[in-house]
Amino acid sequence: MSDFLLLNRFIRYLEIERNASPKTVDAYRRDIRQFLLFCCLEWETDPARLDYGRIDRLMIRLWLGSLMKSKLAKATLSRKTASIRSFFKFAFKRGMIHHNPAHLLMIPKKEQRLPKTVRPEELNLMMETIDAGDAAGKRDLAIMELLYSTGMRLSELVQLHVTDIDMRHKRVKVRGKGSKERIIPFGNFAKKSLEHYLEDRTNLIGKKTGPADLSALFLTDSGKRVYPRFIQRKVSHYLSRVSEISQKSPHILRHSFATHLLDRGAGIRVIKELLGHADLAATQIYTGTSVEHLRNIYKSAHPRADIRGEE
Question: At 179, is the pLDDT very low, low, confident or very high (cuts 50, 70, 90)?
Answer without folding.
Answer: confident
